[in-house]
Amino acid sequence: MKPGHGEILLTEGDPRLREDEERLVEEFCRQLESGMWAAVPTEHPGSGRREATMVHAYAEIPPEAERVIFFPRAAGG
Amino acid sequence: MLLALLVLSLVAAVLAGPVVARAAGRWAARRSAARRGAPLSADLTYDPGRERRAEHRARELLRSCVNDEEWAMYRDLGFIRVPGRHLPDGRRGSGVGRPPYAYLVYPHKPIVAYVPQTGRLLSEYCVEFPDLSGDGRSRLPASDDVLAKWMALTSDEARVIGQANMHLVGRQLDPQRVRRDLWRLSEWERRRGDSRSAQARSA
Lengths: 77, 203
Description:
The complex is a heterodimer.
Chain A (H helix, E strand, L loop, with lengths): L17 H16 L2 E8 L6 E6 L13 E4 L2 E2 L1
Antiparallel strand pairs in A: 1-2, 1-3
Chain B lengths: L1 H35 L11 H18 L2 H10 L2 E4 L18 E4 L5 E4 L6 E8 L13 H22 L1 E3 L7 H28 L1
Antiparallel strand pairs in B: 1-2, 2-3, 3-4, 4-5
Helix pairs in contact in B: 2-4
């Protein structure tokens, strides 16, 4: 999410392919270094309840995740 | 008749004065910036079409992340309820069943904590997601702001609440309006429950 623009696709790829994964890792690190938070929307299979999982490292991204959403970190308003 | 027309045109000119002056000021600033070769500021490059498209994308993204009930709540009422997860003994609740407290998440307004059983308003949490890369003047589209709060609350409630400035309800939000929203929410849930029961009966 980018202020003034909304959703922007940063990069996409298949993490099982080495070249794609390198690009995904690079972009993930770049976003976190620029101060963004990263979250993965998840759904509980049983209840259908949805929530987000904050990820702080590329390795924390659940393997079944289809996307990671970056958004500006929260600050007191 | 002529006098009346003259008076009317004079009044119209006086009323239009500030608008014309503002437009002239913006035009002069734009021209000055263009002469200097300086980039236009975000305010001067405001594009309502871009903002509308951004909000449209933001709504689709929000819809794809939250569940059907939360989406319908946002679409119909303009806010989302997020259950609080922290139990009195410090443990984290499962989020299933009626929570001891919940939040109302509004776009570009503070998050309000309240007690669902009683409707008692607890506090408001002023939180924003500032633009880190730009000049800090542009902000997330409304639905992205709601999604950012939803993701932050459902993933790391303690952190986002810890970052927020906490106040008693009433500093930025009108408590009467929040109570009215809680009433609207209860009515909305009642109607939704009624229509679901009717659908189940007819099935």
